Amino acid sequence: MSCDHRGEAGRLSRLLESEGLGKLRVESYGSYHIVVVELCEDFYLFVSISCSNGDYLYEFALGDENFVFGLNEVECLDRAVATVKKVATWTVPR
């Protein structure tokens, strides 16, 4: 089975947009794509999508552009966890 991380990033970003979760963008880095969702001001969920042995590999990061956040963003964590759980249900191996 081959995988198309670019196509999967597009599919995932469309699903996230349909949920009205915030501003989205997709960044391409050659061997992987990152879907970036701004959940709160200067607080992002980063979903990295790559391929490994023909399967999609999803990895997550939270915070600002340096992957950190402060006490002012703690209230955004519940929203981030809920979003990661949604992504997990959408990415069950097909």
Descriptive notes:
With 94 residues, the chain is of the alpha+beta class. It has one domain. The chain is built from two helices and four strands. The chain has a four-stranded antiparallel sheet, with helices on one face. β1 and β2 form a beta hairpin. The longest helix is centred in the N-terminal third of the chain and has 14 residues. It starts with a helix and ends with a helix.
Mean pLDDT: 89
Give the CA-CA distance, first to last residue: 11 Å
Number of domains: 1
* Number of DSSP helical runs: 2
Q: What order do the helices and strands follow?
A: HEEEEH
Structural class: alpha+beta
**Main sheet summary:** 4 strands, antiparallel
Q: Detail the poorly predicted runs.
A: none
Please tally the β strands and state the result.
4
Percent range for β-strand residues = 35-45%
- Helical amount: 25-40%
Radius of gyration: 13 Å
Strand order of the largest sheet: 1-2-3-4
Tell the overall outline. Answer: globular
